[in-house]
TrEMBL record:
Keywords: Glycosyltransferase, Transferase. Signal peptide: none annotated. It comes from Streptomyces ficellus. One of its GO terms (cellular component) is cytosol. It comes from the Bacteria. GO terms for biological process: lipopolysaccharide core region biosynthetic process. Pfam families: Glyco_transf_9 (PF01075). This is Glycosyltransferase family 9 protein. GO terms for molecular function: ADP-heptose-lipopolysaccharide heptosyltransferase activity.
Length: 317
């Protein structure tokens, strides 16, 4: 039986994609191990696409909480890695499995873990790579690209607009997305709208306010192979600070991302001209609030259109 390495990151799509550099570092450092990722079941396909995970162990909890337990069977993992948080709930969850070695950030309430100190003001990709580097595992935060899917795009060359977000604080108003869609169609761009489960009504609001035809709307949450193909084959992606923005980065598709309560220095794309960030600096807001963040509302449709139309890598229709 192969030795097993368990990674805890029971979060969302964006979290998984931000953790790919760390997962790949673990894969390189443990080529003979079976790497098991404890994460929500719906992330099996993107985890497999990373090339760093052998098996997904379904695990989730409401919000960003730590799962109550893991359905781990057989001998304890030789190595367990906490890529979920800074503990102690995530530390204790993994300690209960009695791993041979636990890699995690230090915390005063788990003094037996001799890891590096947690830094709040740190980019998510860099944070987990720093953790592994502290334990002697080289990790590159820029190692985040996914291979292009074999599935053909359902809307090749379209500008993909994703108006949804997990919280209202990071959800730009539907009417503003509609203004962007209308202006893009007037300039001859193909446009596709995407929405996750439960966001059909939001897409309808955007379509109704856009008052234009020829817009493809992909409702209900596409399977990952079609979603990945859509984003890999898009001419550009427009979205808020959500998992979809990370998907555009993973496929190297030009993107414009709207930030509000959270600074792009913590969750934004890598530096360069391909991924444009729109953000008005200010005090941090509540990323899980119900209402659009005031800093997000300072971004107007003209700002988004300018970023798209001036983008050197977005093709003209």
């Amino acid at each position: 039986m192969r030795p097993r390495l368990l990674v805890l990151r029971a979060l969302g799509l964006g979290d998984l994609l931000a953790g790919i550099p760390a997962l790949r570092a673990l894969r390189r450092a443990h080529p003979a191990y079976e790497i098991v990722l404890a994460a929500p079941e719906q992330l099996a396909a993107p985890a497999n696409a990373s090339g760093a995970v052998d098996r997904l162990l379904p695990a989730s909890a409401p919000g960003r909480a730590v799962p109550a337990h893991l359905d781990w069977t057989g001998p304890p993992p030789e190595v367990a890695v906490d890529l979920h948080g800074n503990g102690p709930p995530s530390h204790r969850l993994l300690q209960r499995l009695r791993p041979g070695r636990l890699l995690a950030f230090a915390h005063p309430r788990t003094p037996e873990i001799q890891g590096p100190a947690w830094t709040a003001d740190e980019h998510e990709r860099a944070r987990w790579c720093r953790l592994l580097t502290w334990y002697g595992i080289p990790a590159d935060p820029s190692d985040l690209r996914l291979p292009a899917p074999a599935t053909p795009s359902p809307a090749p060359g379209a500008v993909v607009v994703h108006p949804g977000a997990d919280s209202g604080a990071r959800r730009w108003p539907a009417e503003r997305y509609a203004a962007v869609v209308r202006a893009l169609r007037q300039r001859g761009h193909r446009v596709a709208l995407t929405g996750g489960p439960g966001e059909d009504e939001l897409l309808d609001r955007v379509l109704d306010a856009a008052r234009t035809d020829g817009v493809r709307a992909f409702r209900g949450g596409l399977p990952f192979d079609r979603l990945g193909a859509l984003f890999a084959g898009a001419s550009a992606v427009v979205s808020g600070d959500t998992g979809i923005a990370h998907l555009a980065v993973a496929y190297g598709t030009p993107s414009v991302t709207l930030f509000g309560p959270v600074a792009p220095g913590l969750w934004g794309p890598p530096p360069g001209t391909r991924h444009v960030v729109l953000w008005h600096p200010g005090p941090p807001g509540d990323p899980h609030g119900q209402d659009p963040d005031p800093q997000l509302l300072r971004i107007g449709p003209d700002d988004v259109l300018k970023a798209l139309l001036d983008h050197p890598e977005v093709p003209r229709p």
